[in-house]
Design a protein that fits this description.
alpha+beta; Rossmann fold; Phosphatase 2c, domain 1; 3 domains; five-stranded antiparallel β-sheet; 20 strands
């Protein structure tokens, strides 16, 4: 049949036509015209608005290229055309950077709910376009029982897709490397929010462990000198992992307020007040994904050595006194971010020289102890072997145990530990 190369004269197909080129432009791009001529394919150019004129001749069409670049074609009109072609099992190659066509899937071999899709000619190479035309024609002619010479040699198809796959793999590697670097930098930023220096004194020594399961962590801790004789410290654990949990840790750190300033004076919040206020801020935020957190907050008076603590669904603090078994400081407390008007309680204990206190996230729990079937918590032998060491040596030993463990990736959790030790006084050491 005669090939129509311009829209100045429109000839509808009267015999099987390999390619129906539908456009809202004045002509077919020269590179596509050259491709069809070189491949000796019959084609017909048709304005998109003239599609109803060929609706009853779709059995004579091999594949359709739709090239629309202006706003003359509505999305609804385009969808109706594609649906009509799909009902006849005609593969569509869509060249557009404007329309967003709702379809269930995209594939090179058209089916009832899919069609071939490309981009503009600036985005799709001629080789790729030819491959898609070839595959669509092979599928169409196979279903129509039309015996034709293969449109493209199998070796060439293999070569084209092999090169395309190599390009995609290279791009995937670049994206993966970029994502890894972004996560690494995010992890560094998150660690900038951790204490740069521990408030060690002649009376109190501190030690910490912070081991994210990934580049970023769902745990966060802080140790803050509120005034000359008060130190507030806590560990919070966002339920979940990865970037969403890490982002929420930054919000939590900013939302946790330890004191308020009133004119020239200030008031230190009690641990129960700190958790209550933090919970109200979290619930008011109405976080997506129903995210919530656990936390244990403590307030230490460095002069009197009184420790007041409150808990929100977090593992219990552990008190280690010389000559005694480790003890969990049990206290009730609801999770953060669930109940807007949740109330929190607090308790106060008197620490003595030589006492140690541990806060930890649930990721560290397997290295400290576990609950038995009766609900009683038992401490691990490894933990009991190091409990009498200084808080620094104790943290170092636990760190070595944790690092020596090999777990499946799905079993790895964020691990955080904050420990303090009330140092023995000099007089006590001399008497002994």
């Amino acid at each position: 049949m005669e090939r129509i190369e311009s829209l100045s004269a429109i000839e509808l197909p009267s015999d099987f036509t390999d390619v129906l080129y539908m456009t809202d432009e004045d002509s077919m791009p020269p590179e596509i015209k050259r491709l069809l001529k070189v491949r000796k394919l019959s084609y017909c150019i048709l304005p998109i608005e003239k599609f109803p004129d060929v609706r009853d001749r779709l059995d004579l069409i091999g594949t359709v290229i739709i090239d629309t670049k202006e706003s003359t074609v509505s999305e609804k009109q385009l969808v109706r055309i594609i649906e009509s072609l799909e009902m006849e099992h005609i593969g569509v190659i869509l060249l557009t950077n404007r329309a967003k066509v709702p379809v269930k899937s995209f594939s090179l071999s058209p089916s009832k709910n899919s069609f071939s899709v490309g981009g503009t000619m600036d985005m799709v190479s001629i080789d790729e376009l030819w491959t898609r035309v070839s595959v669509n024609l092979a599928y169409r002619k196979g279903n129509s029982s039309i015996v034709v010479k293969p449109a493209i040699p199998p070796r060439q198809v293999h070569s084209i897709y092999k090169n395309k796959l190599a390009e995609q793999l290279a791009m995937t590697k670049v994206l993966a490397d970029n994502l890894t670097e972004q996560l690494r930098l995010a992890g560094l930023v998150q660690q900038d929010f951790l204490p740069a220096k521990l408030p060690n004194t002649d009376e109190v020594r501190w030690s910490t462990i912070f081991m994210p399961a990934e580049w970023v962590s769902g745990d966060i801790y802080d140790i803050v000198r509120i005034d000359e004789q008060h130190i507030g410290f806590y560990i919070a654990d966002i339920v979940g992992h990865g970037m969403p949990a890490a982002l929420l840790t930054i919000f939590l750190k900013q939302a946790l307020v330890m004191r308020e300033t009133i004119e020239n004076n200030y008031r230190i919040f009690s641990p129960a007040e700190v958790l209550k206020n933090l919970n109200m801020r979290m619930t008011a935020q109405k976080l997506s994904g129903y995210q919530f957190a656990t936390c244990c907050y403590c307030l230490l008076n460095t002069k009197t050595l009184q420790l007041t603590y409150s808990r929100a669904g977090h593992p219990y603090p552990i008190l280690i006194s010389p000559g005694n078994k480790p003890e969990q400081l049990q206290i009730r407390g609801s999770l953060l971010g669930i109940f807007e008007h949740a109330e929190y309680v607090q308790r106060t204990i008197q620490l003595q020289p030589g006492d140690k206190l541990l806060l930890y996230s649930d990721g560290a729990e397997p290295f400290i102890g576990r609950f038995n079937d009766e609900g009683c918590f038992g401490f691990n032998k490894e933990f009991c072997d190091v409990k009498d060491s200084s808080i620094v040596d104790m943290a170092d030993s636990l760190n070595m145990v944790i690092q020596s463990q090999t777990n499946e990736p799905a079993e790895v959790d964020d691990i955080t530990l904050v420990g303090l030790e009330i140092l023995p006084n000099i007089a006590g050491n001399c008497e002994n």
